[in-house]
Design a protein that fits this description.
Length: 275
């Protein structure tokens, strides 16, 4: 929802740069207060790859999609991240890719199709592009979670979070610079507040917690937080932006979340608990 407010004013790249920069600053200050050793030279490659795939690329894709699709659509694409995490676990870690997980992947695509097909937004090339951009972001999240699990085990989670945000901000800077003159003349208080909250709260605080979850619980469990995103995004956008919550949105969202639960094996766990 906040990207839907900021991106039309500042542009996708400057919005993303501002978010990453503020997130990096908040995380760095907290990490330094905790006495965290960043070991910049030794961990530079890891910070850079995670920064690109977990921040710079997906944030930019979502900020661009915010220009054309509702918050609920964006949040539903975000919920595909665990499915792609499972796929990268198979590709990079040789984890078992069961028939259920394959079916979950296909069902997730069906859910996206239902969302776009019967959702409240008229299907245009830009809407399709926004949905594909959101899916691209989810693919990057899946890779980043798996890569973090593979290469950042020995790095303190706060160092990984802050270091990757700094790397993302540096990578985004050249793309954000052309948007600064327009932002100086057309910026609004609402857009500035949106970027500030995105950076400090939704990136700084949230990523500090997220990387801690990856280090303690593993990538697959950490990305289950995406179950909360569609409902909360839809509710906030309905309350503050007047975006509708329709049958198409609820149906598509429910199918995608079912697919995500299947890919994580949560339905099997639910049956065990019930019995």
């Amino acid at each position: 929802m906040l990207m839907r407010i900021a991106a039309p004013v500042f542009g996708p790249m400057l919005t993303t740069f501002g978010r990453a920069s503020l997130g990096a600053l908040a995380l760095y200050l907290f990490a330094r207060q905790r006495g965290i050793d960043f070991a910049w030279r030794r961990n530079a490659k890891t910070y850079f790859i995670i920064g690109l795939t977990n921040t710079a690329i997906p944030f930019s894709l979502f900020a661009w999609s915010a220009l054309y699709i509702p918050s609920a659509y964006m949040a539903t694409m975000n919920s595909l991240a665990p499915i792609f995490t499972a796929a990268f676990g198979f590709l990079l870690l040789s984890e078992r890719l069961s028939i259920v997980r394959i079916a979950a992947f296909l069902l997730g695509l069906v859910g996206v199709g239902v969302l776009v097909g019967i959702g409240p937004t008229t299907v245009t090339p830009y809407v399709i592009g926004g949905v594909l951009a959101g899916m691209g972001a989810a693919i990057n999240y899946g890779f980043a979670a798996t890569y973090t699990r593979m290469h950042a085990k020995e790095i303190p989670s706060l160092a990984t979070a802050a270091g990757s945000q700094f790397a993302a901000a540096i990578a985004l800077l050249p793309f954000a610079l052309p948007s600064i003159p327009h932002a100086l003349t057309h910026g609004t208080v609402a857009a500035l507040l949106s970027v500030a909250i995105l950076g400090v709260v939704c990136t700084g605080v949230a990523y500090g917690l997220f990387f801690h979850l990856i280090s303690t619980e593993g990538a697959s469990k950490a990305v289950t937080v995406t179950f909360l995103v569609p409902a909360t995004a839809s509710i906030w956008a309905w309350l503050l932006l007047g975006e509708p919550i329709t049958t198409g949105i609820v149906t598509g969202l429910a199918i995608v979340l079912l697919a995500t639960a299947m890919s994580l094996g949560l339905l099997k766990h639910f049956r065990i608990v019930r019995t």
